[in-house]
Amino acid sequence: NAGVMQNPRHLVRRRGQEARLRCSPMKGHSHVYWYRQLPEEGLKFMVYLQKENIIDESGMPKERFSAEFPKEGPSILRIQQVVRGDSAAYFCASSPAPGARDRTDTQYFGPGTRLTVL
Amino acid sequence: AQTVTQSQPEMSVQEAETVTLSCTYDTSENNYYLFWYKQPPSRQMILVIRQEAYKQQNATENRFSVNFQKAAKSFSLEISDSQLGDTAMYFCAFREDSGGGADGLTFGKGTHLIIQP
Q1: For a tag site, which of A26, A46, A79, A102 has the least CB within 10 Å?
Q2: Residue A72: pLDDT above 60?
Q3: How many CA atoms lie within 13 A of B76 on its CB side?
C-alpha cells in the first residue's frame, strides 16, 4: 500500500527557469494539498485540489505559481520563472474524500521535494 | 484566521524521561481537528496523533498522548519513556471541520526535541 509519492526529491533550477513538482496521492485518496516549508519554519498551506478542480488556492502566490490535478496522472505544482526566494521544501499531502470510510480526513504527507534556485 | 503557537523552539531531555510539548491555538470555530506531526532529519512528515474537538477523551497512541483543553485552546503532546528515535521537529497543526469538505492545515513553527542518551 504505497504512500504519497513525490518526485523529484531534489530539484535544482537557475533563476528564470521553470520548476515542475509531481505528487501521486495514496491509493483511494481524491484530495491533494500542497504546502511550502521555508528553512526553520513550519509548513504553509498553498492549495487544495480534487480531480480536475481547484478547491482552495488562498495560500498560493498570485503570480508564477499554478497547480493542477488532472483526471489521469499526478498532481503538478508548477513554478514559472523561479527566483531565489522560491527555494524551499514543497510537500504534498492527500486525504480520502468526505464520506469515505476513513472519516478522519487526516492528511498523509509525501517525502517532499527540495527545490534549490541558484 | 486560525493561528497555532508553539512557544518552545527547542527542548532537550534524557532518554526514558517524559516530555511535554506545548501548543495553543486560536479559532472561533467549534468543530475542528488537531494534529501532532513529527519531522525527523529525513524531513518526512509523520502523523503522530490526532484529536477531534468534539471528543472529550484525550487521544493516546502507545507512548504518545495529548492533553486537550478545549476551553483554554490548548493541545499539548506528552511523550513517555522517550527514545533516541524520538529526536525530531514536532509540529502542532489545526484544521477546521467545514463539513462539506477538507481544508488546509495550519501549522505552528515547531519544537525541536532532542533526546540525549
Answers
A1: A102
A2: yes
A3: 13
